[in-house]
Structure formats: C-alpha cells, structure tokens
Design brief:
Layout (H helix, E strand, L loop, with lengths): L2 H28 L4 H7 L11 H9 L2 H32 L5 H10 L5 H14 L7 H23 L4 H9 L4 H12 L1 H16 L3 H6 L8 H11 L4 H21 L1 H14 L1
Helix pairs in contact: 3-13, 4-7, 4-10, 7-10, 8-9, 10-14, 12-13
C-alpha cells in the first residue's frame, strides 16, 4: 500500500472518529451551559461559564440520584435473573434428554417474535391483578422475561459446542446434575455470560415504555422516565436536562470502555462458533 492510500485511510479514520466523538462532546458541553449559550450564542464551543450547578440541579431538584439508583438496581437484578435462567434453561434444553424439549425450545424462541408494544396492555392487566404496579418487580420480571429468549439463543450457540464427553467424565467422577452444571459447564460459558450480560444491560438500562406505563410514583421511577419528567417540568432550563442525559449515558460508555476486551472476545467467540 503506497503512501497516498495510507494517508487517505488515516484521514477517513480521523473523520470517522470525530463523527463518533462529537455527540459525546456536544452532550458534555450542553450540560454545562445556560440557555443563552445553548440557543444561539455558543452552540458548539466550549462553555464560557462552566455551570457545574446543572448537575447539582439534576441530581437534587430533578431527583436524578434516586432514579439512577433505581435504574442500577433494576438493571442489575434483571441481568442476574436473565443469566441464571438462560443458562439453566439452555442446559436443560441442550444437554438433558427429555420429551418435549424441542417444543419447549420452540416456545422460548417464539418470544423473539413478540414486540414490546403488543404486550403492554395484557401485561399491565396481569401486573394490576397481581398488585405488582409501582414496585421494583414491576420492571425486573418483564425485563428478565423479554431478554430470556435471546439469552437462550446466545447460550445455545456456545453450549452445543461443549463436548458431551466432559459430562460423562464428570459423572464417572461422582458429579451429579448440579455439579456438572456449576463445575463444568458454567466455567466454560464465560464468553456467553458476557454476551448475555451486555445484551440484557442494553435492553434494560434505557427501556422507556414499560417504565413509563407501569410506574407512576417517583419512588420507583427509572432514569429514562425521570429525564422525560424533568424536561416536562423544567422546560426553561435545558442545562440540567443535559446533565441528566450525561448521568444516564455515561455509565454505558464507561462500562463499554472497561469491558471492551471481554466484549470483543465474546462476540468473536460467538462468531467463530456460529
């Protein structure tokens, strides 16, 4: 490859990097400005006055601190349930011989075809009759259920490639069903656990429809709904709204940077197995 081609590729990569980094830069600077700078005086530049009070206003006046904790708790619980349920279900469907296993797997996969919008009304009726509205379980249970089908599909791609000889050897050594699962299968499924955790996190952290329809009190409200309420109540102050968006967005960016190598390895492993 000659020098001109390398230079062109470098220029394109720089432009692509700027295109991806600019929204983060704009959101950060947006969160530290007042309305005058946001709407005309200084739209793209750095803040003339760094208004850190916007974050204090978002956390205290807008109650973003509570909403952040709620989102963190609900997402962590849903991820944990999704991983455990998907691993156990996949183990039962792929490595234990029993009647109706294929039909059961097909029923799980049917969940991939059900859109969230179509389930809001029946799910609301069920949660209302169970008196589960305005609770943490109001979101944890549906989130776990709607991520389960894809989680099982991901785990199946990994688990079917684990040799059955390992199960037989563990049985000879005295391992029972649970021993094989926790001592043999689980350690070999770490790439799948990472993939399922990432998928569940992306599905739960920014989810809006369920949280908006099933939670009406501020005690259990999550970040996406909280930001919507903030924009409806404080329409004259956009700086705190930008600060709330940063609070909601940056955990995902930080998690991706911290786990980028594991994310890459898990998807490469899944691609090779596929």
């Amino acid at each position: 490859m000659n020098g001109k081609k390398k230079s062109l590729i470098h220029i394109l990569l720089v432009l692509w990097s700027i295109t991806n980094i600019f929204p983060i830069y704009f959101m950060l600077t947006f969160s530290l400005k007042n309305n005058e700078e946001i709407f005309g005086e200084n739209v793209l530049g750095l803040p003339r006055h760094w208004i850190w009070a916007n974050y204090e206003s978002a956390l205290n006046t807008g109650n973003m601190a509570l909403y952040f904790v709620n989102s963190l708790f609900v997402t962590a619980a849903a991820i944990g349930i999704s991983i455990i349920a998907a691993m156990m279900a996949t183990y039962a469907l792929t490595r234990i011989k029993w009647k109706m296993s294929k039909l059961t797997n097909a029923m799980f996969m049917l969940g991939l075809t059900i859109p969230l919008q179509a389930s809001i009304v029946p799910l609301y009726v069920v949660l209302s009759k169970l008196h589960w509205l305005n609770k943490y379980t109001t979101l944890i249970v549906p989130y776990s259920a709607f991520t389960l089908s894809m989680s099982i599909l991901i785990c199946t791609g990994f688990m079917v490639d684990i040799p059955y000889d390992l199960d037989e050897a563990a049985t000879i050594d005295g391992c029972g069903l649970y021993g094989i699962f926790f001592k043999i299968i689980m350690p070999l499924m770490k790439p799948a656990l990472s993939t399922v955790g990432i998928y569940a996190y992306l599905q739960c952290w920014n989810e809006f429809m369920f949280a908006n329809c099933f939670i009406s009190d501020s005690k259990h409200r999550t970040l996406p709904v909280g930001i919507k309420e903030l924009s409806g109540t404080y329409t004259t102050e956009w700086g705190p709204i930008g600060a709330a968006l940063v609070i909601a967005t940056f955990p995902t960016l930080i998690a991706y940077v911290a786990l980028s190598s594991k994310i890459r390895d898990s998807f490469i492993a899944g691609a090779v197995k596929g």
